[in-house]
Every structure is written in C-alpha cells, then in structure tokens.
Design brief:
Blueprint (H helix, E strand, L loop, with lengths): L1 E4 L4 E4 L5 E14 L3 E2 L2 E2 L3 E4 L5 E5 L5 E6 L3 H11 L12 E2 L2 H14 L6 H19 L12 H13 L7 H8 L3 H12 L3 H18 L4 H8 L4 H12 L3 H6 L1
Antiparallel strand pairs: 1-8, 2-7, 3-4, 3-5, 3-6, 3-7, 3-8, 6-9
Helix pairs in contact: 1-3, 2-3, 4-5, 4-6, 4-7, 5-6, 7-8
C-alpha cells in the first residue's frame, strides 16, 4: 500500500499480519503499548508485529506519506525459520526503527513489486534478505553456523538456471533442487559465483538475448524467447546490466 495522509487519525487497533514499511515524507505520530509514543519521521522503518495495539495521526503539519507491506504472519514465520536455520525468534524490540539500509531495501522491494515486469526470483530473494536483516538487527535473532558451501552444493542451482532461463523460476525450486534452504541457496550461490541467483539469471538472459539479436531475431521475439516479461523489461535489464539498450545493440 502507498498512501499519503494529511488529517487522518487511526484509532487504536492491531493487525493480524505484519505491517512493514517506510516513511517517505513528513512524520506520523505513533503510540503503542499503553500510550508509549514513538514518532515516525522521514526515513523511519515500521516493524509492527501482529497483535501490537497502536494508533497514529499526523506528526507534522504536512502529514505523512508511506509505503507499507502486509505479509501474513505464516509467511514471515516461514522466512524467519528459513533465514535462521529453523530457529524461532521473539518479536521486534521496537515498532519504529532507524535503519537506512533496511529502509532502502524496503523501498526497492516496494518499487519492484509495483512493476508488472519484475522477476519473481528477484522479489523473493530481496524479501528474504529483508526479513533476515529485520529480525537479526531488531528482534535479536541469531543466524545459524555460517557456511559458504562449495561448487558441488550449488551446481544443481546453476544447472537449473542455465536450463530453465526462459521461464519464471522460484527460489524455493532452486533450493529444493540443491537440497538447501532458500537462504542457504542465496548465501552459498553468491559465495561461489559472486552473484545471487536472480542476478546470475539476468546475465544468462541478456547473453541469450544478445545471441538471438545477432542472428536477426526481432527484439520483442527475443525478449519472449529468453524469459523477459516483455520488450520493455528486456530494455531495462540491458541498460542495468551492459549499459546499452537492445535496440542500440541490434543497430551496432
């Protein structure tokens, strides 16, 4: 949800799901836990667990603008168990935190989720990393024993990316192929290949698209053949990855 409020006042209430988001401008006045007040100025991160009773109103004359995500409690628990090797964790220490890196990651996740042409593997990976950071830094969760794996442990992941690049791939499928948790798949693959799976997949698609374009394939057809949602998605990915558009590549 993206919202901008100038005079809105929220009565005391709670959510069945998590409420995780960032304040983009202004300030929201926020109270919880028997009227403990923690205002949310621009850049603040909201980490509100299910069942936390809270209220809110404008904390500045201009009101506030925010972007929120509301993941179901079961989804968050599954991500926490995955990211911390099955360990359970307490709730967040505070419902409002100052964490610029987490704020930036949440803004990116929210922006990507609003795009029609977004790789689900990238969304899932970023979401899992955000949950990991939020619970490690702001709920006291402790990661399991570190292990970077080796090429053999993540070879099935690379094989699947190379073979199925033309279709949507879920992180859970990659992890299952290698017999790892989703977070282990992310961590081990990056340690071995220097890129997370979604970035590696992006490289594969760009490389395959370039080969088709060099053979004279139309841009829209090349985009569809290698798994991009559409030609615009391919163009955006080319710019981010190689610094030029498919059209410029075709002309050259």
């Amino acid at each position: 949800m993206t919202a901008e409020y100038h005079q809105q006042r929220f009565d005391r209430h709670f959510h069945d799901e998590f409420a995780i988001g960032v304040i983009d401008s202004g300030c929201q006045a926020f109270v919880y836990d028997n009227n403990r007040r923690l205002d949310m100025p621009k850049g603040s991160v909201a980490l509100i667990a299910p069942g936390v009773v809270h209220a809110g109103w404008p904390g500045a004359e201009e009101g506030w603008r925010y972007r929120m995500l509301y993941p179901a409690a079961a989804l968050v628990r599954a991500a926490v168990e995955d990211a911390f090797d099955g360990s359970d964790t307490a709730s967040f220490h505070r419902p409002v935190v100052d964490d610029p890196a987490l704020s930036l990651a949440l803004s990116r996740l929210h922006g990507l989720s609003a795009l029609a042409a977004t790789d689900p593997l990238e969304l899932e990976s970023l979401y899992l990393l955000i949950i990991r950071r939020a619970f490690e830094r702001h709920a006291g969760a402790r990661p399991g024993a570190a292990s970077d794996g080796d090429r053999r442990s993540v070879a099935p992941i690379r094989e699947m990316l190379e073979a199925d690049f033309h279709r949507p791939i879920a992180l859970a499928d990659l992890a299952a192929r290698a017999g790892l948790s989703r977070f282990q798949a992310l961590r081990h693959f990056k340690a071995v290949y220097g890129l997370p799976p979604h970035a590696f997949l992006r490289q594969i698609r760009v490389r395959r698209a370039q080969a088709l374009i060099m053979q004279g394939e139309a841009l829209a057809a090349a985009a569809a053949a290698v798994g991009f949602a559409d030609q615009a998605h391919m163009t955006r990915t080319f710019r981010q990855t190689v610094g030029y558009t498919p059209g410029a590549f075709a002309r050259a």
